[in-house]
Write a structure and sequence with these properties.
This protein has 310 residues and is an alpha/beta fold. It is built from 12 helices and 13 strands. It has a 6-stranded mixed beta sheet with strand order 5-6-7-3-8-9, sandwiched between helices. Strands 11-12-10-13 form a 4-stranded antiparallel beta sheet. It has a 3-stranded antiparallel beta sheet with strand order 2-1-4. Strand 1 and strand 2 form a beta hairpin. The chain folds into 2 domains: 9-84 and 155-217, 3-Layer(aba) Sandwich (Rossmann fold); 228-306, Alpha-Beta Plaits (2-Layer Sandwich), CATH 3.30.70. The chain is globular and about 70 Å long. The chain binds adenosine-5'-triphosphate. It is a peripheral membrane protein.
Length: 310
Amino acid sequence: MTAPSPDDRDAVLDLADVRRTFGTHVALDGVHLRVRAGESLGLLGPNGAGKTTLLSLVTGLRRPDTGTVRLFGGSPRDPSTRAALGVTPQATSLPQALRVREVVALVAGHYPDPVPTPDLLDRFGLTRVADAQCGGLSGGQQRRLLVALALVGRPRLVVLDEPTTGLDLDARDVLWRELAGYHARGGTLLVTSHYLPDIETLTERLAVLVEGRLVADGPIGEIRGLARIARVRLRSDASEALLHDLPGVVEVVAADGPGARGTARSWEIRTRDGDATVRELASRGIPFADLDVRPAALEDAVRHLTGDPR
Ligand SMILES: Nc1ncnc2c1ncn2[C@@H]1O[C@H](COP(=O)(O)OP(=O)(O)OP(=O)(O)O)[C@@H](O)[C@H]1O
C-alpha cells in the first residue's frame, strides 16, 4: 500500500470519478472534486446541474452508482464519520412545540464541545426569539436557526445548499458574517448558491457544474479569467451594428431607452477583448464619451461557462 500524499491527508472531502443516475437520467458523471481543510468552495450551476445530488452524496444520504466519496478519509454513510460534518436539518424536522433555546441545547447535547447556546443565539440574532416555539418563527428566523444548528458542534466541514434563498438582506448578512467567521477560524465550507456576489465574498474557490459534469474548478479569479469577458460601457451615437462589428464583441445592449437619431446613447458592450474593442473604436474615429471598462462580473463569467445566453 502506498503512503498517502500530503494532499490526501489534507483532504476533508474527496470525490473520485463519481457517477449517479436516477433511472435513465445521469445526474452526475465523471466528477472529481477534492476539498482540503480550511478551504471555502462555492458550487455553482444552473437548475438541475446536480448540485443537490452531489451534496446528498457528501452527506451520506445517497450513494454514487460508481466512483468513491470519502469524507474525512471515511465513508459518509458511516454516522461516526458524519459527526464532524455540519449540515442544516430540514425545516420540517424542527420540533414545532419546542422553544428555540431548547432545540439548540438538544442538538448541542450530541457534541463533545458545542458552542454555548447563548453565544450561538446571539451570533445568529436569535436571542430575542430564544423562548419562542419553533413553530412560531418567521421563515428567515427559521433558516437562521437551521444554519446555527449546523455550526453548534464546531464541525470540520459545513455543507450548505442555497442557504440564503428567500432571506432578506439583514438575515443574509448575519448568515454570511457567521459563515465567514467560521471559515476564518479554520473551518471548511462547501456552499451552493445562485447569488453569485455571496460566493464572491465567502468562497475563494469555485466549482461549476453543468449537466452533471464539472466544467470549471479553480480560484475565483481564474474562473473569471476563463470566461474572458469584459464589460465596456460608453456613450456614443454609433449604431448597434457598428459596435457589434468591433473586435471581440459578443453582445451590445442599449443601456437607456431608444435615442433620437444622431444623439449619443449609453451602451453596454460585452467583449472577449476589452482592449482591442476600445482600440478599434478609437482608431475608426468613432466619437464616444464616459468610457468605463471592467472585467466581467462573476455572473457573466459563469453564464458564459454554463452556456446561459442571458
Ligand atoms: N430523486 C430523484 N429522482 C429522479 N430524478 C432526480 C432526483 N433527484 C434529482 N433528480 C434529477 O437529477 C438532476 C440533478 O438534480 P439536482 O437536484 O441535483 O440539481 P441542482 O443542481 O441541485 O438543481 P437546483 O439548482 O434546481 O436545485 C435533475 O435533472 C433532477 O431532475
